């Protein structure tokens, strides 16, 4: 049956008065009745599959499908891309209608009638450029939310999503997310609409630290690893992978504005950063991480990208000095002029923008962490919701929060910082964990056995460079540490440079970690 993968049964077809004429498996004709009396005909296996019957018998009613099958009232109704999507949503208990096509303008009197019956009307069009463009256009024109289906391996619409084993819960989450995002973008609203803006998945990218609708900065001295760390974060965000040991609420697209590094440099870094990822993770990153390297009209470039990719969650600007080229960065007015469009993009699109900037030579030399060390006008720091500083001293990396509007002082530098270990093979940074030295017998130069429970702590797996670093910190010299890894972890090697925690039962390996609190 043509509808079998969407769960659309004969009873549902009858409920929507849809007629299916089937000559054979490759010759199917489907009749969809519209409110205006017209019959939309679909021959799915033909090149020109759409046509109409009864055009001479139409009535003054709007050309809309599924409206007579809606409940008398409810919390929400969806405007879908097509008839199959309407019926597919019905199978999971979500009421929906559709107009003639995504490109057809919505009928004002239909929207007015729906607003009287339902608390929310949400657009849920196809996950393609036409769907993105039209849902954005109609959302603004008719003042209704729009939602985007989750990214995945299905084709592009609701029907494909459900056929690929997508769930009702996933669709409901994306609808709730779309509603919250819409209300957060309003410039004026009633107090009663504040509760519609609350949706935890929208609040933070890194819980308690990086909110999902803010302008933030990563600052540091020259050659301190800022660009490499943000590229690692971009990859982590796309695949929802922990970042320096902490949960990342990602899974959306990233735009990286790279104005300092050449394409060749980026290519080399990207290849090494992806070297330890799975094939599936690499495919996701290649599809959802975008680069631009022309600084002229950078705001227009961002807006053009967002028009084509509205499911973008993070934009990285590398560096502020490049987008402020020709401006006096010591002049507060000129700095604000550069940053204001970025702030507006954050709020209107519910995404985070991370701007890379420099600190002065003096604080860099003194290895100090303070928001007063940022180069240029104080208005740069004032515009940021969060400022994180990265220091490098004698090949040692440190990270600390120097500004955080909603972060307690005990979590900020200099009260709290973290050290990073840099794996030179994969270029990934890892949070360094302080490890007590392994006890050594009197007269023994160093420990003979490694305490793997202490080395791995609660980690399910670690990379070679991190294990080596921790062994050295616990009292081993480099050569014996390498020998230990080679001999004792041989049976626990997952892939090149990646080892499983030998102290955990096999069943525990690969289970999800519980969220931990991000503490800088």
UniProtKB/TrEMBL annotation:
Gene3D superfamilies, per the entry: 3.40.1360.10, P-loop containing nucleotide triphosphate hydrolases
Recorded GO MF terms: 5'-3' DNA helicase activity; single-stranded DNA binding
One Pfam match: Toprim_2
InterPro entries: P-loop_NTPase, TOPRIM_DnaG/twinkle, Twinkle-like
Name of the protein: AAA domain-containing protein
Native organism: Algoriphagus aquaeductus
